[in-house]
Design brief:
The chain has 109 residues and is mostly helical. It has one domain.
Length: 109
């Protein structure tokens, strides 16, 4: 049998665990929504990029600089380049966070 103090301590530990799980779920949901919002913004800006840059460039330069490295459609090309850039940024961020976590674990040892 456990004493009252042990039961109360167990209740506090369990409450702390539940709160930690709740915070983790909340953080995960916010990260997912933030990532989705950023990706949507990147795609929308990339789709609008040909119209934004078209008035500033002469017609001959615009024909040659329509991001045709990936496609003949300039809007699709900008979207592909923007998504690839976004993925590269996400990968670099994840790598930096993992490197920091690894470094912190090494310092604790």
């Amino acid at each position: 049998m456990r004493s009252d103090e042990e039961r109360i301590a167990a209740m506090h530990r369990r409450a702390a665990e539940l709160e930690k799980k709740k915070c983790f779920r909340h953080t995960l949901i916010m990260q997912a929504f933030g990532t989705a919002a950023c990706l949507a913004l990147v795609v929308l800006l990339a789709a609008a990029m040909p119209e934004i840059t078209a008035p500033r460039l002469p017609q001959t330069a615009q024909e040659n600089m329509n991001a045709s490295i990936f496609s003949n459609s300039s809007a699709l090309s900008f979207i592909v380049i923007a998504v690839l850039s976004f993925l590269l940024g996400v990968s670099a961020t994840i790598f930096c966070f993992r490197l920091k976590k690894y470094r912190d674990e090494e310092e604790r040892k």
